[in-house]
Every structure is written in structure tokens, then in C-alpha cells.
């Protein structure tokens, strides 16, 4: 039996890419937001800058998913290109210093970052599905997310250490984050391309065993040569006949009740949750008497992100185990949703109790976000496998999630500027 797709090298490669892509996690925008406020930007301007990326991703993500579904190009090239552009945009903030009232650079970089980052998640999900198939997809995505959270922890640790060591030139911590993320490109070349049709959620031509290896259903074909060659010949033959496997219509995907519930649930979760960490960072960071950012501001926020990401890793591991044991998706999602109101209530109650109390609320952030992040691609796979629209729905649902997060940052920062943090 040929070990073409699910080899140990493949598993390690996905973990490595996920780890480095984790460097571009939520912490990056939080660090940037706190830094911009510290050098004199208003909270409203920061919220607007972050919302540019969000609204751009909102407009692009569905199309990005559809492009990844329909492309005849190697999806690994999309992933590498998107990672490089996103990392460069992240590092551009080093050119923004105190007294710089020109917001054009940040606004432009956030616009470009919104486009490039829209391709990362669907590319990685498509390659994972193409390599491991639906039977192993849950485990593979849980592994990807676990190592992504570990990467976010390392990113926050590196950024916090760099900001403290390079103080007052704390903007150079973004170079550390961006440079680390570019390393994902080096690991991408070791990812298998897998079956392109399986990667878009169409029925596979061969089975995947418990070790993650694959074999064709026709033994004569399996003995004739590599599976990848067979897939290529089969696709060429289908092209000559002018017939591809049947694809579900766009409307059937968008109007599915499960799609609607998934999108609205994710929207309201991120609308409630996205801006909380930024507000928490502003509460803990504060300023010196001369208005400059405190030396421990970024390290404190790094600690908050590390606590959250550690809990996300735990939630990912526990959620995967509980799903296997028969808990189902719904109870886990309910637990994740309940963490937001409890967390916000504790922040209000402990706002003057000290940094340690505020940091402890990040446990709930990690638990809730970890569960919802794990469930997202798994639910999309449940809804779309066999339709050929897997990445389309990944992008479409991510757009709704992103809309919630964008509105949260935009409206949340406007409210903070006018009414204070507790509001």
C-alpha cells in the first residue's frame, strides 16, 4: 500500500506550517492597536484601521474560497504567496512612529493584508482535506489548530520579550513576528498536494486507511503507478469528456439551514468577543505620566495572549477528544458561547483589582475561542462534503465571522473613546 498522502512527514509538515502561521494570529492586531494608541492615535482611528482589514476580508473571503475550489494551480503556491504578503504588511508598522499623523501606510497595509490573509485558511483547509480525506479531517484540523495556537504563544512571547528589550523602540517587535511567519513558506514545500478534487469536498477515488495512507479502489490502477498520476490522467479524461463530478449550486449551499445557523452563530460570537482583548490590553497597558507607553505594556498583553492561546490549545485537544467520545458538536458550541458574557462580567468586576485578575479572564477567552475555532472547519466539512463547495463555504462563513469581529473592533473602539472602557 503506497504511503503517499498521510505519511509522518506530511503530518509534521502541516504542524510546522500551522505553527508558523500561528505567528500571524490575533495577537498581531492587538499589539498593533495598543502601539498605535500609545503613540497618539485615537481609539476610533485604531478601530477604523483594524476594520479596514476586516471589511476587505469580508468582501474577499467568499471569492477566495471559490477560487481555491476551482483553481487548477497548486494550492501550496497560493498559501506561500498569501503568507509572504501578510507578513510584510504586518512588518510595515515599523515605519509608523510617534508624531506621525499620516495614517495612509497603516490603512493601505491593512487593506492589502485583508486580501492576502483571506486565502490562508481556505488553502490550509483544502490541502488538509486533500491529504487526509473526510475520515481523518477532524483529527488533522485539530492538530493544525493546536500547533497554530502554540505558534501564537511563541509569537506573543517573542514580541513581548523584544518590546521589553528594545524599549522605547517597541515597534520592532513586529519584525520578529513577521519574520517568523515567513518561515511558513519554507515548510510549505514539504506539504503534499493531495487529491485536488478531494480538496474541494468531492468524493474521493480512493480510500484512506487508519494510518492515513491511501489506496485506489481499483487494484489494477493502484498497481499501475502513483495515485497522483492516476488522478491527473482521470482529470484529463474528464476534461476531454467535458464532465466533472456533479457540483452543488451556490444557492443550495448558501440557503442551507445549517449554513445560516453556522454563519449567524459565528457572527454574534465574534461581535461580542473580538474587541474585548484590545480593551483589556488598553486597561492593563496604560501610559506613563508623559503620555508614552509603559515599558511593560506589550509584555503584559503578551502574557494575556499566552494565557488565552494555552487555553485554546487545551480546548482544541479536549474538544477533539470529546467529539470522538460522542459528545457531538452542539454542547461544545454552547459552552464556547457562554464564556463571553462570563468573561466580560468578570472584567467589569475586577477592573480595579489588579493586572493578575484581569489576566485570569483570558482563560475564558481561550476556552471559548478555542472551541469555536475548532468547530468551524469541522462543521463546514459536515455540511459540504460531496458538494464540491467546501472552500466556498469556508470563505463565506469566515466572512460572517470576520464581519462580527470587524464591527466589534470598529464600534467597540468608538464606544471606548466616547464612554470609557467599562461601557
Determine the mean pLDDT: 76
Low-confidence sequence ranges: 1-6, 205-242
Share of helix, binned: over 70%
Question: What is the straight-line distance between the termini?
Answer: 61 Å
- The tally of helices reads 16
Reading the helices and strands in chain order gives HHHHHHHEEHHHHHHHHH
What structural class should be given to the helix and strand makeup?
mainly alpha
Largest beta-sheet details? 2 strands, antiparallel
The main sheet orders its strands as: 1-2
Approximate shape: globular
Radius of gyration: 22 Å
Strand content: under 5%
- Total number of β-strand segments? 2
Describe the 3D structure:
Helix 1 (8-21) runs antiparallel to helix 7 and helix 6 (120-166) packs antiparallel against helix 7 (173-188). The relative contact order is 0.17. Strand 1 and strand 2 form a beta hairpin. This protein has helices spanning 8-21, 26-38, 43-70, 75-91, 104-117, 120-166, 173-188, 219-224, 227-241, 250-254, 257-285, 297-324, 329-349, 355-360, 362-384, 390-419; strands at 206-208, 214-216. The protein is an all-alpha fold and 423 residues long. The protein has a two-stranded antiparallel sheet. The chain has 16 helices and two strands. It is 74% helix and 1% strand.
In summary, what is this structure?
The chain is mostly helical and 423 residues long. The protein has helices at residues 8-21, 26-38, 43-70, 75-91, 104-117, 120-166, 173-188, 219-224, 227-241, 250-254, 257-285, 297-324, 329-349, 355-360, 362-384, 390-419, and strands spanning 206-208, 214-216.
Amino acid at each position: 500500500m503506497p504511503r503517499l498522502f498521510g505519511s509522518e512527514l506530511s503530518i509534521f509538515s502541516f504542524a510546522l506550517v500551522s505553527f508558523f502561521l500561528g505567528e500571524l494570529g490575533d495577537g498581531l492586531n492587538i499589539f498593533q492597536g495598543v502601539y498605535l494608541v500609545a503613540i497618539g492615535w485615537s481609539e476610533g482611528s485604531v478601530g477604523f484601521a483594524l476594520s479596514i482589514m476586516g471589511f476587505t476580508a469580508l468582501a474577499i473571503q467568499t471569492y477566495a474560497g471559490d477560487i481555491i475550489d476551482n483553481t487548477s494551480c497548486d494550492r501550496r503556491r497560493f498559501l506561500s504567496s498569501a503568507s509572504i504578503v501578510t507578513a510584510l504588511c504586518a512588518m510595515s508598522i515599523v515605519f509608523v512612529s510617534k508624531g506621525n499623523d499620516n495614517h495612509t501606510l497603516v490603512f493601505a497595509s491593512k487593506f492589502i493584508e485583508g486580501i492576502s490573509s483571506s486565502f490562508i485558511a481556505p488553502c490550509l483547509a483544502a490541502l488538509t482535506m486533500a491529504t487526509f480525506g473526510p475520515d481523518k479531517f477532524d483529527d488533522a484540523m485539530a492538530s493544525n489548530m493546536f500547533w497554530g495556537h502554540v505558534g501564537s504563544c511563541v509569537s506573543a512571547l517573542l514580541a513581548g520579550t523584544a518590546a521589553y528589550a528594545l524599549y522605547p523602540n517597541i515597534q520592532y517587535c513586529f519584525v520578529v513576528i513577521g519574520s517568523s511567519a515567513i518561515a511558513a513558506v519554507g515548510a510549505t514545500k514539504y506539504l503534499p498536494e493531495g487529491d485536488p478534487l478531494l480538496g474541494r469536498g468531492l468524493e474521493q477515488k480512493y480510500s484512506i486507511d487508519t494510518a492515513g495512507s491511501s489506496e485506489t479502489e481499483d487494484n489494477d490502477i493502484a498497481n499501475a503507478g502513483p495515485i497522483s498520476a492516476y488522478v491527473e490522467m482521470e482529470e484529463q479524461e474528464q476534461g476531454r469528456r467535458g464532465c466533472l463530478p456533479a457540483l452543488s449550486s451556490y444557492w443550495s449551499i448558501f440557503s442551507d439551514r445549517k449554513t445560516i445557523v453556522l454563519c449567524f452563530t459565528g457572527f454574534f460570537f465574534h461581535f461580542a468577543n473580538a474587541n474585548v482583548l484590545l480593551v483589556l490590553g488598553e486597561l492593563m497597558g496604560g501610559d506613563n505620566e508623559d503620555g508614552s507607553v509603559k515599558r511593560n505594556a506589550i509584555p503584559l498583553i503578551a502574557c494575556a495572549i499566552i494565557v488565552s492561546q494555552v487555553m485554546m490549545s487545551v480546548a482544541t485537544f479536549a474538544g477533539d477528544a470529546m467529539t470522538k467520545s460522542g459528545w457531538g458538536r452542539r454542547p461544545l458550541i454552547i459552552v464556547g458561547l457562554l464564556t463571553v458574557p462570563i468573561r466580560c462580567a468578570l472584567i467589569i468586576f475586577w477592573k480595579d483589582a489588579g493586572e493578575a485578575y484581569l489576566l485570569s479572564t483570558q482563560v475564558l477567552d481561550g476556552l471559548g475561542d478555542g472551541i469555536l475555532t475548532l468547530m468551524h472547519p469541522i462543521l463546514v466539512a459536515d455540511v459540504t462534503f460531496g458538494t464540491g463547495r467546501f472552500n466556498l463555504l469556508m470563505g463565506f462563513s469566515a466572512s460572517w465571522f470576520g464581519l462580527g469581529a470587524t464591527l466589534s473592533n470598529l464600534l467597540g473602539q468608538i464606544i471606548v473613546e466616547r464612554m470609557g472602557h467599562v461601557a
